[in-house]
């Protein structure tokens, strides 16, 4: 992500939710240009991506996770919906309203195409995307 001047209000909101994270360890960029900031950092074990609107509302936090830590209903849903694909990576997405979803990186065994699949916490398939 390129160098970005982040307003103090956005930094304040970030520190409100992540007081233990040093701002010097955070990479800032745009998730949606001029609308949603993205703060990326890690705690030595997992990677975090935090999205905050330009008005200072925390939208979500995406937390990387080990594949073996995925809930069984998500693994079952992936295997059912994408049987000819391998699971390459996973993140849990925590929304500000309390909802949780899972963002999975999949690779097609036949074509080698890679994409993201999004599932609700109960295993319902939500969407497919290519923002890897």
What does this structure look like?
- This protein is 15% helix and 45% strand.
- The chain has helices spanning 8-17, 72-81, and strands spanning 27-32, 36-42, 47-53, 58-65, 85-95, 100-108, 114-120, 125-129.
- The chain has 132 residues and is of the alpha+beta class.
- This is Putative beta-lactamase-inhibitor-like PepSY-like domain-containing protein.
- Residues 36-126 form the Putative beta-lactamase-inhibitor-like PepSY-like domain.
Low-confidence stretches: none
Number of strands: 8
Order of SSEs? HEEEEHEEEE
Q: Largest sheet at a glance? A: 8 strands, antiparallel
How many helices? 2
In angstroms, what is the radius of gyration?
Answer: 16 Å
Taken from the alpha-carbon principal axes, the silhouette is: elongated
In angstroms, what separates the terminal alpha carbons? 14 Å
Domain Putative beta-lactamase-inhibitor-like PepSY-like: 36-126
Organism: Aureispira anguillae
Pfam family, one: PepSY_like
Protein name: Putative beta-lactamase-inhibitor-like PepSY-like domain-containing protein
Task: Please sum up the structure shown.
The chain has helices at residues 8-17, 72-81; strands spanning 27-32, 36-42, 47-53, 58-65, 85-95, 100-108, 114-120, 125-129. It is of the alpha+beta class.
Features:
132 residues; PepSY-like; eight-stranded antiparallel β-sheet; Putative beta-lactamase-inhibitor-like PepSY-like domain-containing protein
